[in-house]
Amino acid sequence: MMWQRVVTLERAGLAGYVRAVARALGVPGAGTACESETRCAGYIALPRRCAECPGRDGMVEWSARRGWSVVLEETPEEASVLVARLGAGLVPAPDVVADFVGEVLAGRRTGGRGSGEPAEADQGTLRELLVPYALIAWPPG
Predict the structure, then answer these.
(1) What is the DSSP letter of 119?
(2) pTM of the predicted protein model
(3) β-pair partners for 72
(4) Dist. CA 15–CA 18, nearest whole Å
(5) Residue of 6, 57, 94, 101 with fewest CB within 10 Å of its CB?
(6) Where does residue 51 rank: exposed (0-12), middle (13-18), buried (19+ CB within 10 A)?
(7) DSSP state at residue 122
(8) Which positions ≥6 away from 130 have C-beta within 8 Å?
């Protein structure tokens, strides 16, 4: 069987970066997802709930435009809600993201940091930021 899926360095880098952040948060890789077909984004399911909204599940979301945010997940009754945005650049170190998420979940931090929204990175910049995290595993065979 031939491996057909094309893996770009950006896609592999995004997957590696999201998994590195998940590891820093103590979340197994199965609790992560990445999307790079229509937009460059990553998601990590949070194992514990936010002190501000203990009745709703949360996630940490990364986008090439905004960086990291803590978001309450959408329910049939309510839309998703932004709890806090990190605002420390597009690809901060995983431990910086983990510290931010810990502060948000404990109720010590809301809102965003920094002024305005970061602009979406161009492909070259994004590649440069994500490639160090690229982990490419060849299929067996």
Answers:
(1) P
(2) 0.81
(3) 58, 81
(4) 5
(5) 6
(6) exposed
(7) P
(8) 9, 10, 13, 14, 16, 17, 91
CA nearest neighbour of 70 among 42, 41, 101, 40: 101
**8 vs 93, more confident:** 93
Residue that is written with structure tokens 């910086």 in the block = 96
| pLDDT computed for residue 73 by the predictor | 81
Three-state SS for 71? Answer: strand
Q: Is residue 95 predicted with pLDDT exceeding 90?
A: yes
Question: Cα 131 to chain center, whole Å?
Answer: 16
Alpha carbon distance 68, 88 (integer Å): 8
Q: In the chain, count of helices (H) and strands (E)?
A: 3, 6
Residue that has been written with the tokens 């820093």 in this structure: 24
Residues 6+ apart with CB under 8 A from 89: 67, 118
What lies within 8 Å, CB to CB, of 20 at 6+ separation is 94, 133
**Closest residue by Cα to residue 17 from 36, 38, 37, 2:** 36
d(CA 139, CA 134): 16
